[in-house]
Amino acid sequence: MTTVSSKTAAPRSVSGWRSAQSKRLLLTVVGWSVAVVIFFPIFWMILTGFKTETAAIADPSLIFSPTLESYQEVQARSGYARFALNSVAVAFGSTLLALLIAIPAAYAMAFLPTKRTKGTLLWMLSTKMLPSVGVLVPIYLIFRDVGLLDTRTGLIIVYTLMNLPIVVWMLYTFFKDMPKDILEAGRMDGASTLQEVLYLLLPLTLPGIASTGLLSVILSWNEAFWSLNLTTSNAAPLTAYIASFSSPEGLFWAKLSAASTMAIAPILILGWMTQKQMVRGLTFGAVK
Amino acid sequence: MTKPRASGRTVGGLRTLSLQAPAVILLLLWMIVPLGMTLWFSFQYYNLLMPGMTGFAGVENYQYLLTDPALWAAMGNTLLLVGWVLVITVVGGTLLAVLFQQEFAGRGIARVLAISPFFVMPTVSALVWKNMMMHPSNGVLAWLAESIGLPALDWFSALPLTSIVIIVAWQWLPFALLILLTAMQSLDEDQVEAARMDGAGPVAIFFFITLPHLKRAISVVIMIEMIFLLTIFAEIFVTTSGGPGLATTNLAYLIYIRALLDFDVGVASAGGVIAIILANIVAIFLVRMVAKNLED
Fold first, then answer.
1. For FRET with A92, which of A65, B65, B189, B287 sits at 20 to 30 Å CA-CA?
2. Across-strand partners of B44?
């Protein structure tokens, strides 16, 4: 006992305490420096959004008189709101649809599993591995022929199917964590499947469903392969709108920054809130 | 097996089936129809600019594609892009996960800042880097270089692929960090403490305890990133359009050029088939791993 306690007590001496303090200080400095460097481009973009176009391309400076000019210009000249509305409609529309299709499927997989359930889940996961570019041509041609090119409906369909495997998978992991007895009790009391789902399952797993939905919204909001290839102007969401700033004619950095800041702000906040669930969904439960 | 149980099972099976049916059928269509069409087109003469020329092409599209130097340039670029981004994000992500696992003042906020780039849409990250960071005369990097007496670098013409690698790595480093940080949390602190008692230094602890613990999470990160990185598109689309020349054209971008700029559906589809095969090689390993995890 005495030998052990003398060993553990050693770092708690004054000099040990000092070295622990200086180690903590060093870690704080290094940790924050790394974080600031990684975050810098985002910080700089937010800052540039409040500059005038002249100030935006001048030598980098933290001191300037902030203006909302660019924010107003972005709306007045290009109708930012229209693209934002497309993003909202497409992200939430596809998420809602994916949840509607996925909830019954995940319910069945979690509570009425058969021999094939595992295989089905893995197969769903494997559809996610299909590279979009491999099916670009047929989807483009089908959409052209049925008039879905450059429509919100078209993008909603693609995003729903794109996120469906992740949504099913995440819901499945949340449903499986739910105690089975509660559903069992409901069934004993004569609840139908629909009642069981509506009055027992959904309220009890609401946090899980919400975070699944948020992940789907985030993924749809940021998707930039289909939005660039399937839309031109009418249905273009923010990812495609921001891409229009890539034309070399104008160096509209302040406007680009203002538009970008508005485009990423909601998702950045949602992302911060749902990091943990995000890991679960993105790794298909392989990392908990 | 008794009779009532068997029948109960069939009813349950039917219910399971009907509840899963919408999801399964939709995904099946989403997979089979375009896949079948891609495969079909890849064996056809099909150019939207030459409507007269149709019919079975045999392996001609593949032949054309495989002898096209652009394909090999694109394959090389894809490999370099995926390889470098993987090295940077996995090594960097592991080190950062160790760093952000330590206690320090304001760790929570520092973590949030460090994972933020992952939530930024690809077109925004690419344009912010291209303009505000890497612009040869007005960018922050040029200003930094000049202020320490170095000549400013014209990133996208001098080092085009490197520039794309930097942008993509910046987006995916936070992903690796996020996953590895989560995996770190299940690290057995007692084991680390015991090793420390036995006189193991931080380096030894990292290589003999932390790294083996993270092995599984690291392989998940590698595979998921590979699937996404194989078909990086938006970042190239808004910065270099695949150029100069073919310097930043990857497989995804080449298919896009053949399909939507040259309108050669046949050749583009053959390219699509190649991309699918490549992605599937990776996917098989990932699916196996997840399957193993489902069992425990």
1. B287
2. B56
